[in-house]
Specification:
The structure is a single chain. By secondary structure, the protein is of the alpha/beta class. It has a single domain, classed as Spore Coat Polysaccharide Biosynthesis Protein SpsA, Chain A (Alpha-Beta Complex), CATH 3.90.550. The protein is 31% helix and 21% strand. The chain has a six-stranded mixed β-sheet with strand order 4-1-5-9-6-10, sandwiched between helices. A two-stranded antiparallel sheet has the order 2-3. Helix 1 packs across helix 4. The longest helix has 17 residues. This is Pseudaminic acid cytidylyltransferase.
Length: 230
């Protein structure tokens, strides 16, 4: 059994009700649910939530909400791995055997079914602990700058001031969309970003954190531009 788990608690602070707020014509969470269903990868698409309204919206768009997430796993400090571990434990206790669980974020409208299929393909072929979406930084991180309390500028790595960009190691960052993982990796809370993980490359224009109102506006602009270009 292969399961998608979408964490979606109700207590978003910076963008209230973020998980079900309308985004380009649908509740935000609907984009992740529909991509998961369209991928054909999953026997079940579960939404883990503490919120009755989120549960109702999720079910209306085809997700399964078989449990209510405990209060102690629904605060501002609970990490993703704890939420997925809880889902894995619930599934085991309910008699559902599974090999893979894939965490999909509820606020990832750029997620695509084909990317999920690519992730599962890597899991099947190489059996890592995790496979996750990632993209490259647009600028060499070795030339990153910092500003001190007096407003003075310095480099994090001044030794690379004169190093050619093509001679610097390319850096990647988590795209914040999905994380395929083995059941054992989630239950044991193994680190996602390790030598036991693989990544699925996404283009930079399809990667956007949505944590602030400004992020939300930018994401809608990008989404609408991509739809207009299809």
């Amino acid at each position: 059994m292969t399961v998608a788990v979408i964490p979606a608690r109700g207590g978003s602070k910076r963008i209230p009700r973020k998980n079900i707020k309308p985004f380009c014509g649908k509740p935000m969470i609907a984009w992740s649910i529909e991509a998961a269903l369209a991928s054909g990868c999953f026997d079940k698409v579960i939404v883990s939530t503490d919120d009755d309204e989120i549960a109702a919206v999720a079910q209306a768009h085809g997700a399964w909400v078989p449990f209510k997430r405990p209060v102690n796993l629904s605060d501002d400090y609970t990490g993703t791995t704890d939420v997925i571990k809880h889902a894995a434990q619930w599934l085991a206790a309910a008699g559902y055997e599974n090999n893979y669980l894939c965490c999909l974020y509820a606020t990832a409208p750029f997620i695509r079914a084909e990317d999920l299929r690519r992730g599962k393909g890597v899991m099947d072929a190489s059996n890592p602990d995790y496979v996750f979406s990632a993209t490259t930084y647009a600028f060499p991180i070795q030339r990153a700058l910092k500003v001190d309390e007096q407003g003075l500028v310095s480099m994090f790595q001044p030794e690379h001031f004169a190093t050619r960009s093509q001679d610097l190691t390319e850096a990647w960052h988590d795209a914040g969309q999905f994380y395929w993982g083995t059941r054992a990796a989630w239950l044991e809370k193994r680190p996602i970003f390790s030598s036991s993980a693989r990544l699925i490359e996404l283009p930079r224009h399809r990667v956007q954190d949505i944590d602030t109102p400004e992020d939300w506006a930018r994401a809608e602009w990008l989404f609408k531009a991509m739809q207009a270009g299809q």
